[in-house]
Amino acid sequence: MEFFDFAAAVIVSMIRSAPVLMFAALAGLFAERSGVVDLGLEGKILASAFVSAAVAYSTHNPWAGIVAGMAVSVAIAMVQAFVSITQKGNQLVAGIAINIAMSGLTFVVAQYIFQQGGRTPDLGDARLPNIVLPGTEALANLPFLGWLWGRVLGGHSPLVYLAFLLLPVVHWVVYHSRFGLRLRACGENPHAADAAGVSVEKTRYLAMLVAGVLCSFSGAYLSIVQSGFFLRDMSAGAGYLALTALVFGNWRPLHTVLGCLMFGFFTAVQIQLEGRDLPLVGRIPGSLIQMIPYVVTVVVLAGLMAKSVAPKAIGKPFVKSR
Length: 322
Prior knowledge:
This protein is an all-alpha fold. It contains 14 helices and two strands, in the order ααααααααααααββαα. It has a two-stranded antiparallel ribbon.
């Protein structure tokens, strides 16, 4: 029975951990499918997490916080797009610069405004409420169905449902819409797309705009749903894990989300193992348990990097032929 309780807790925790990576990975998918390397996911997550928490606390309205986080994430994405697309700058350096800048700036601004060591106050009632499905109370005492209906399918934040609903939407946009066709063309052969009358710069700007919007949900989820406050560097490498999931998924929506769920699973295992006494092993030190998601990341990259096929024009500034 203890094993089944552990497994049930891991599944629920995985569902609640994965959206942070899913939003960021799908954001990176749009940017990189268009040909722009988006190493700035981490910085956009941090910026939107801070602004979302600060605005939600100030207005006591989590939705206002989400909108504000979206605005700042899009603004950063547009700056990144200007440097990478219009100015033909180094896309890797631009992304890393955003990450470093946001890591320091969010801490300094949070300390200046709230004077709490670089964090925001607890949000309290400004957090997003969980959605309780109809019939949850009536089914609560049923052994399996109550858990499935009340904790797996129900009892989550609206952003959790949004993360999973985005998968079919993103799949349709990328593979079955005119914008998706242009997006993939600009990432594979921008000169051929340009010859066909597609504006490569406009398509890449639109891709970065979408990436900014999606990435903002990741930051808002961290601060308004998971933690209930903003803390310095609270993303803890989520942007880089999202990029790893993107490589794991070979830049395809479904496989990328499966990669996010895999990392969410190991994060959930890490959370559930902390403080537990295991048979024959005893209590594992917390520092070793916290290594689990990152060890998995290294293994995935080492095993799959050679097999992954990135868009052919990724990271290459487009110079229009004359």
